[in-house]
Amino acid sequence: RFPLTRPDLCKKWEAAVKRKNFKPTKYSSICSEHFTPDCFKRECNNKLLKENAVPTIFCYTEPSEKSEEFAEQPEDPLPPPPPPPPPPPPPPPPAATPVLPTSPSTPSFHLSQIDARFVDPSIGLLMPPLQTPSNLAVFCDHNYTVEDTVHQRKRIQQLEEQVEKLRKKLKTAQQRCRRQERQIEKLREIVQFQKEKDILAGKGYVILPNDYFEVVEVPA
User: Fold this and answer.
1) So what's the pLDDT on residue 212?
2) Which of 91, 104, 110, 179 has the fewest CB atoms within 10 Å around its CB?
3) What are the helix (H) ranges across the chain?
4) Measuring CA to CA, how many Å separate 164 from each of 16, 40, 47, 154, 171?
């Protein structure tokens, strides 16, 4: 993801992407293939991106711009490259020009009608179109800059609403628990007071007046 919390580093990432009128959001991210190997570090068998790493590998990047290490020229001159191998002999002419199978819904066409630039003469298969400047303007190696779809945004909004409802329920449950704890504490105090009262009642005594009893003489 783009380092939005670090504006200086985020501006470097935006400059490396080279897209007009592009502002990264919290959902924007860049594939790890756009970083050189020296931009990563390993921690606990995990491959992590360094704090100051900047993406440098893109479809418009020259090989000399991929890494500063490779951009530096070595002090010792390199030996001259070996001569290129001789070109392979031309393939024999085909016996017959193949025709693609046709169907009622598919118009038939001949291979001779296809531009020769897009056909490999050695194997007779179609090749992808050449990467011209006009194609590079439309071509993107990864579709990570496309904004979120309406469905994704609605899903995110629904999840945020669910989180807010659960947070309110949690707060209500915590308040209910605190009230129950206060009630339990009051009941404990009442029980303790009643126990002390019963103990004092068992040890008490009554003071009677002196003339409460009469002396009765029993005849012999």
Assistant:
1) 59
2) 104
3) 7-17, 68-71, 133-138, 150-202
4) 38, 37, 34, 15, 11
Over the range 9-28, which residues count as b (16 or more CB within 10 Å of their CB) and which as e? beebbeebbeeeeeebeeeb
Q: What angle do CA 16, 22, 24 make, to 5 degrees?
A: 85
What's the pLDDT score for residue 131?
A: 52
Q: Please name the amino acid found at residue 99.
A: V
d(CA 59, CA 135): 11
Residue found by looking up tokens 């579709």 in the block:
143
Mean pLDDT by 10 residues, the chain (220 residues): 80 79 78 80 77 75 46 51 71 57 48 50 50 49 56 89 95 94 91 82 62 60
Instruction: Give Cα 126 to chain centroid, integer Å.
Output: 38
pTM over 0.70: no
**Which residues lie across from 40 on neighbouring strands?**
49
Query: At residue 158, what are phi and psi to the nearest 5 degrees?
Result: -65, -40
- Tell me which amino acid residue 11 is: K
In this predicted structure, what is the pLDDT of residue 184? 92
> How far lies 78's CA from each of 81, 82, 114, in Å?
8, 12, 44
